[in-house]
Amino acid sequence: MWDFIQDEIFGMKWLNRLIGSLLNACGLDTESKLGGSLQFFIYDMIKIMVLLGVLIFVITYIQSYFPPERPKKILGRFHGIGANCIAALLGTITPFCSCSSIPLFMGFTSAGLPLGVTFSFLISSPMVDLGSLILLMSIFGWKVAVVYVVVGLVIAVAGGTLIEKLHLEDQVEEFIRNGKSIDTPQNELTKRDRMKYAWKQVAETAKKVLPYIIVGVGIGAIIHNWIPEEWVVKVLGTGNPFGVIIATICGIPMYADIFGCIPIAEALVAKGAKLGVVLAFMMGVITLSLPSMIMLKKAIKPKLLGIFIAICTVGIILVGYFFNLIQNYII
Question: What is the pTM of this model?
Answer without folding.
Answer: 0.75
